[in-house]
């Protein structure tokens, strides 16, 4: 959306009644035919705008899209979302964000898509993305940390997701190590963290978040759930994503000030993993024990039957009944 189109949209939002083409033409110092052109552009983007002769134009409805202008308008962040790349459909927001990071795009840059054809989760697993139903985005961070510390950003993002969902929907979700957000015992959202690093230095981190928001039961694969299926009402995706960006920035800045300990304390508040007997599958290796804690790098501390504690940095975790 170009700057003039943004100004037309702003004028329509500022004036909830009818506004004439002459009023907008005078306000923007462009012709009435140019106003019509920008109105059409807004309609093409999904805005519902009524036009009545002798009365003018009236904005009736915003599109159910995560458009950059709507996402960033009055967004109270210093970092997150200052640059947004928006797509109707892409293969993967992770891949696009990775390429942008290699081109030195600043941290806080966001890549958001209404759907993805090759979305992936941890271990290259597929994530099904229905257009205009979920929230699917990736973003770039450039923290000055050792590569071993990178996994903490998975937990940081998990906390942000839980708190944003609670703030917007009043639904309390749980965290399951290493990267799942759980609602009513089913998977609601997932987080993927990928890094570009040398031996001692991280160049950038790409974090991807996928949330089932307004998916109906036919658009979910068991054992999955959406906010709509749980609450039985449509959730405003824009409000939720804006809250997410604010929460992510809040915890990222706190990490810079206070380190990983503060993030881990928040993660422990929301997790359903600690204190439970779990089974972890790593390729052909199976581990069973008590999920005792997570360390400063986000590894799970598993107390085995022998009493020995093993640090687990990856694997599929299942709760033992």
Helices and strands in order:
Blueprint: H1 3-14, H2 21-28, H3 32-44, E1 48-52, E2 56-61, H4 68-72, E3 84-90, H5 93-102, E4 110-116, E5 135-141, H6 152-169, E6 174-176, E7 180-183, E8 186-197, E9 202-211, H7 227-231, H8 237-258, H9 260-270, E10 277-282, E11 285-294, E12 300-304, E13 309-312, E14 316-319
Parallel strand pairs: 3-4
Antiparallel strand pairs: 1-2, 4-5, 5-9, 6-7, 7-8, 8-9, 10-11, 10-14, 11-12, 12-13
Overall description:
The chain has 321 residues and is an alpha+beta fold. It has 3 domains: 3-61, Orthogonal Bundle (Arc Repressor Mutant, subunit A); 68-270, 2-Layer Sandwich (BirA Bifunctional Protein, domain 2), CATH 3.30.930.10; 277-319, Roll (SH3 type barrels). Helices cover 32% and strands 28% of the residues. It is built from 9 helices and 14 strands. The protein has helices at residues 3-14, 21-28, 32-44, 68-72, 93-102, 152-169, 227-231, 237-258, 260-270, and strands at residues 48-52, 56-61, 84-90, 110-116, 135-141, 174-176, 180-183, 186-197, 202-211, 277-282, 285-294, 300-304, 309-312, 316-319. The protein has a 7-stranded mixed beta sheet. Helix 1 packs across helix 3, helix 2 packs across helix 3 and helix 8 packs across helix 9 (260-270). The model has no long low-confidence stretch (mean pLDDT 93).
List keywords for this structure.
5-stranded antiparallel sheet; 32% helix; 28% strand; Arc Repressor Mutant, subunit A; 321 residues; 9 helices; BirA Bifunctional Protein, domain 2; 3 domains; elongated; 14 strands
């Amino acid at each position: 959306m170009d700057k003039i189109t943004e100004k037309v949209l702003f004028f329509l939002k500022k004036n909830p009644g009818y506004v004439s083409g002459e009023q907008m033409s005078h306000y923007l110092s462009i012709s009435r035919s140019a106003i019509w052109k920008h109105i059409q552009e807004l309609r093409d983007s999904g805005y519902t705008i009524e036009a009545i002769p002798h009365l003018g134009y009236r904005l009736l409805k915003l599109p159910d899209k995560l458009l950059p202008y709507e996402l960033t308008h009055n967004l109270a962040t210093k970092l997150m979302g200052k640059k947004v790349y928006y797509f109707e459909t892409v293969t993967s927001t992770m891949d696009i964000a990775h390429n942008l990071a290699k081109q030195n795009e600043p941290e806080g840059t966001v890549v958001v898509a209404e759907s993805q054809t090759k979305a992936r989760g941890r271990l290259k697993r597929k994530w099904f993305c229905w257009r205009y139903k979920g929230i699917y985005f990736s973003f770039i961070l450039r923290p000055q940390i050792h590569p071993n510390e990178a996994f903490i950003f998975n937990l940081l993002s998990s906390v942000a997701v839980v708190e944003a969902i609670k703030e917007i929907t009043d639904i309390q979700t749980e965290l399951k190590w290493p990267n799942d957000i759980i609602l009513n015992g089913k998977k609601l959202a997932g987080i993927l963290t990928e890094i570009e690093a040398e031996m001692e230095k991280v160049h950038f981190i790409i974090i991807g978040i996928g949330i089932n928001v307004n998916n109906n039961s036919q658009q979910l694969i068991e054992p999955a759930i959406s906010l709509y299926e749980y609450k039985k009402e449509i959730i405003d995706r824009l409000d939720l994503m804006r809250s997410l960006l604010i929460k992510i920035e809040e915890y990222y800045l706190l990490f810079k000030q206070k380190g990983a300990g503060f993030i881990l304390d928040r993660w422990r508040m929301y997790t359903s993993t600690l204190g439970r007997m779990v089974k972890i599958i790593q390729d052909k290796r199976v581990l069973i024990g008590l999920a005792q804690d997570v360390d400063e790098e986000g590894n799970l501390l598993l107390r085995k039957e022998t009493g020995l504690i093993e640090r687990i940095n990856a694997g599929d975790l299942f709760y033992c009944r």
